[in-house]
Amino acid sequence: MSDSASPEPASRPADSGRPRPQYGEYATPEEQRARIQQPAPWQLETAGPVMTDLPDPAPAPGHVAPVPPEPRRRPVDRIVTIALLAYGLINVVTSVPAFLDYSAYADMMLGMLGVDAELSDPAGARGWAIAAALVLVIGWAITAALSVWSLRRGRLTWWIPLTAGIVVTFVAGALMAAPLLGDPAIWQALVDSGPGLG
């Protein structure tokens, strides 16, 4: 479609200094609305307020309300999620007793590092061990609840126990390492036993 065949409106004076408008670039808003057939702003105004809080109309007799779709079943996701939760539970059940006997835990860790030293304050380290055990138990419980909630909604869930397991293990490990890293006697033994450090 070309505007070259249509005459220029009589309401506008002809300006010899500017080129003939193409595609309505110099058209007034009224001319543009006439071309694209949109109503003027005053035509869009409503006569009164719009009632938005009206109740939903009753369904017609024999009309059945649409049923929401059933959540998607993901059998592999369900199996992997349950396996990760079971592994986490076994980890919690076996780690909590080991954490609560912090003296044996510290001796085992120092033996693995090849350090011949003892913890200066084993009684003070017990609070750290209890905090780490609580982090494991509460972290697993929250992870299990979130995983079940997500599985029931048909969502992809395997990443929840995996991510939570990494985070909870890191936090519990940091809590268990704090008394060892804060003991000056153990630090000195680590420095003395290190190759080329002494």
UniProtKB/TrEMBL annotation:
Keywords: Membrane, Transmembrane, Transmembrane helix. The chain crosses the membrane at residues 79-100, 128-151, 158-181. Residues 1-71 are annotated as: Disordered. Signal peptide: none annotated. InterPro entries: DUF6264. This is DUF6264 family protein. It comes from Microbacterium arthrosphaerae.
